[in-house]
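note to self — DONT lose this again. spent like an hour looking for the file last time. sequence + predicted structure for the chain T wanted, 378 res
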Amino acid sequence: MINILRCAICSFLILLLLIGSNVLAVNATQIDEVRKKEVLDSADFEIIDNFVDEAIQELLQTTDFSSISIARNAILSRSSSGTISAEEQYAQQFFSSAAKYLKDAFEKTRELTSQQRAEQIRLNLLILLDNLEDLRLAKLAAEIMDDKNTAVRYWAVHAVSNPVVVAKLNSDSTDNPGLAREIVQKLKDRLTGENSPEILSLIIDFAGNLKTPEGRELLLEIADIRIRRYENWTIDAELLDNKVLVLLSDVILSQREGKAEVSHRFAQLYSFVMQRYIKSMDDQNLLDSTQKQQSASVLVDVEQKCIGKLTGISQSVIKSAIEKGRSSTLLAEYNSLFGSEDSIGRLVRALDFNYGQNTDGSRRLIPRILPPRPGETQ
């Protein structure tokens, strides 16, 4: 599995090897004086705007990447006022200018003839944007999330899922109440074609940390995609399902109403994890060792963290069955949890939900059966 963080580090090391000197050619004397002021006027706002413009242009135009991190830090260190009384004025101008000139810079990278250089510059601009930790820049990062370069996509999603940004989205005082929905929609669009486990992990964390209806909506979409990938036998990075299931369980436990659709996703996804693992116990060639180990880890961890809380009965039956390699015990526990044609499962009884409708219109009380793997006979 390619580690996306290694990709980002490798890209950064390439930057360091490319060239070498200027740290920050922009004259910072005026901006440093403005940072000392107690109250700002229009001339100060112009100085802030000019500084941000020139500093970002330098990052965009330079062919000397050896000191790029120092240049970024020079900008970051001037992103706030040195006085409490002027902080609001200063920040308003600084981040308005940053949003404007970063957007221009990203657009200009599309015009560069060297794809490698364009990707390297976008990467550095996103790292700067991420470290600025400002809600006004989150929308800009969201627009870069479909980049072909994995490291660039990672930092775009990282900037959007930044804890400071998410905290502001959760705040009732958010200036742009529609921003959370816009970001969530872009993340949904990203989910369908995203195969990087590290990026998917960031999106899952974002969905869990966003305490708005949009966060819950995104979490359900993630669960639906994981369920479909089990059905299609295209699932990978199984440990991600641990995160998804624990978050779904947390939502169920924290909500008094509207739990049925979340419970449905939790049970269907967990049932597919268990069905697939049971199949692999009878067919040693069905999963490789990593897939089997990760699936077992998900089953055991969710049993320990979620099942007891959801059903009111703590247990370790799944853990014991996996450790002892007893497929019959695991299958019996599956039927107990999820039910069969003859009995209702413990999860349905405890959480009062269903899996949709049967063909005759009645409530379906057992999860869908995992279809055979393509080329496999039933």
